[in-house]
Amino acid sequence: RIAWIDGAFVPLADARVSVMDRGFLFADGIYEVTAVLDGKLIDSARHLSRLQRSADALGLTFPYTSEQIEAVERELIVRNQIDQGSVYLQLTAGAAERDFLRKADTPPTLVMFTQAYDYLNSPAAEKGVAVVTMSDLRWARRDIKSVMLLAQVLAKRAAAEAGAQEAWMVEDGFVTEGASSTALIVTQAGTLVTRPYSQTVLPGCTRAAIWALAEQDGVTIEERAFTVDEALAAREAMLTSATTFVMPIVSIDGRPVADGKPGPIARRLRQLYIEAARAS
Ligand code: PLP
């Protein structure tokens, strides 16, 4: 596998970052994950704009233009022969003497690599996934795609131990989002509901795309927070993310959502999302 680090394509095994890197020492960094289908990037403009937004929030100067980043991503897709997969990108504040304060002249570290997936043949999408709920233990700026992911690592581990594929995090009685996905429900009245953008959640790129597709498809949509009880009483529940597209949720805390089978709106939105990605 070939990775890209600070201007050079190198074998992944030879890609090295200093132990003094601020990403390693302070989680002083951000990342993006963009899906690849048919060898093409999906929703690249949305991911690049969120990347810029995250960089601005941390005060990191982005060292390349969006066009340059996309050119590297495309080259990585070709070199790694990725038909279905993702490109991971991480930008950190670079390597310097350990100090909470950054030095202005420290060059940032930028790394990219690819991963292969099989989106179109996904047993999870066919069967649906289980989620378990837990307290949201994260910080107050979840709208920044920070590499500080320990709360999500612990949430995912707890979910896996409970036999579930995702954790839904709950704050003040309301679901914020999944550990690595946006949370959505369909009410008994047929309205697709998800939490509005704020500092409490990451503005999901897949959610933005799905939202537009749902609206075009005539689905009633509403941005508001919902509780776990509302989700349990819903007609459907689902999650969205770059590397899962749309996944139907069939159980929450071991209790079935509706009849415990993937719902028609989740299935349809998944299909529309894939069609739109392939047509782009
Ligand atoms: N929320 C969190 C906390 C995430 O980590 C992710 C993706 O990894 C998402 C939501 C979904 O965002 P996107 O659709 O842009 O992948």
UniProtKB/TrEMBL annotation:
InterPro entries named in the record: Aminotrans_IV, Aminotransferase-like, BCAT-like_C, BCAT-like_N, Class-IV_PLP-Dep_Aminotrnsfr
Gene Ontology terms for molecular function: D-alanine-2-oxoglutarate aminotransferase activity
Coiled coil: none
Presence of keyword Amino-acid biosynthesis: yes
UniProt pathway: Amino-acid biosynthesis; L-leucine biosynthesis; L-leucine from 3-methyl-2-oxobutanoate: step 4/4; Amino-acid biosynthesis; L-valine biosynthesis; L-valine from pyruvate: step 4/4; Amino-acid biosynthesis; L-isoleucine biosynthesis; L-isoleucine from 2-oxobutanoate: step 4/4
Substrates-to-products reaction catalysed: L-isoleucine + 2-oxoglutarate = (S)-3-methyl-2-oxopentanoate + L-glutamate; L-leucine + 2-oxoglutarate = 4-methyl-2-oxopentanoate + L-glutamate; L-valine + 2-oxoglutarate = 3-methyl-2-oxobutanoate + L-glutamate
Domain of life: Bacteria
Pfam family for this entry, one: Aminotran_4
EC number per UniProt: 2.6.1.42
NCBIfam families documented for this protein: PRK06680.1
The protein's role, per its UniProt record: Acts on leucine, isoleucine and valine.
Similarity annotation: Belongs to the class-IV pyridoxal-phosphate-dependent aminotransferase family.
Official protein name in the record: Probable branched-chain-amino-acid aminotransferase
Annotated organism of origin: Sphingomonas vulcanisoli
